[in-house]
């Protein structure tokens, strides 16, 4: 999967992206992203737009139901946030709304703690959130490499239900949209100083 990602990376990004992948995505380095840093939460593990169902109630309220809990795990709260942002947005959307998404997530996280009469300034102060986010940002590139091929796959190239895992993960034919979205993430990460 990493080789597929490197192959579609823009020439101007390829050397920098390749070095980053080789350095950061060894098994021992990847495992750290799935462990709590300062706070342990139960994370969905596959939180993306197509795992949400929406319906409008008669009073106009939008109801959202989360689906697919097979990847649920104890980890840090940033994992689901980055997974959702990388899988659910493109470069243009992130340029316009990334900071709003981060702030909204943290504010709602704090509101959830307050509903349980817990003090977010004690449990997960914003400084800890910001530090965890910075430490977890490389995870977004892992998501782009591993998940975007499936999120962006053309229908005719999608894996068939019941196919073996090796075929499912290694045999996916990536789309032009994958290249576009991956290069958008790489561009963002260059601007953020991560690459």
TrEMBL record:
<dbReference type="Pfam" id="PF02958">
    <property type="entry name" value="EcKL"/>
</dbReference>
<dbReference type="InterPro" id="IPR011009">
    <property type="entry name" value="Kinase-like_dom_sf"/>
</dbReference>
<dbReference type="InterPro" id="IPR015897">
    <property type="entry name" value="CHK_kinase-like"/>
</dbReference>
<dbReference type="InterPro" id="IPR004119">
    <property type="entry name" value="EcKL"/>
</dbReference>
<feature type="domain" description="CHK kinase-like">
    <location>
        <begin position="1"/>
        <end position="115"/>
    </location>
</feature>
<protein>
    <recommendedName>
        <fullName>CHK kinase-like domain-containing protein</fullName>
    </recommendedName>
</protein>
């Amino acid at each position: 999967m990493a080789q597929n990602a490197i192959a579609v990376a823009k020439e101007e990004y390829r050397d920098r992206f390749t070095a980053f992948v080789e350095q950061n995505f060894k098994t021992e380095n990847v495992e750290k992203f799935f462990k709590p840093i300062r706070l342990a939460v139960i994370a969905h593990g596959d939180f993306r737009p197509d795992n949400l169902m929406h319906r409008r109630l008669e009073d106009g309220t939008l109801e959202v139901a989360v689906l697919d809990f097979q990847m649920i795990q104890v980890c840090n709260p940033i994992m689901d946030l980055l997974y959702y942002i990388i899988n659910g947005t493109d470069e243009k959307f992130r340029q316009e709304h990334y900071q709003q998404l981060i702030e909204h997530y943290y504010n709602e996280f704090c509101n959830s703690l307050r509903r349980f009469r817990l003090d977010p300034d004690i449990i997960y102060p914003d400084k800890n959130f910001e530090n965890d986010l910075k430490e977890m940002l490389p995870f977004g590139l892992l998501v782009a490499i591993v998940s975007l091929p499936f999120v962006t796959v053309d229908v005719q190239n999608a894996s068939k239900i019941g196919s073996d895992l090796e075929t499912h993960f290694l045999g996916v034919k990536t789309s032009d949209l994958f290249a576009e979205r991956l290069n958008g993430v790489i561009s963002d990460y260059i601007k953020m100083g991560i690459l």
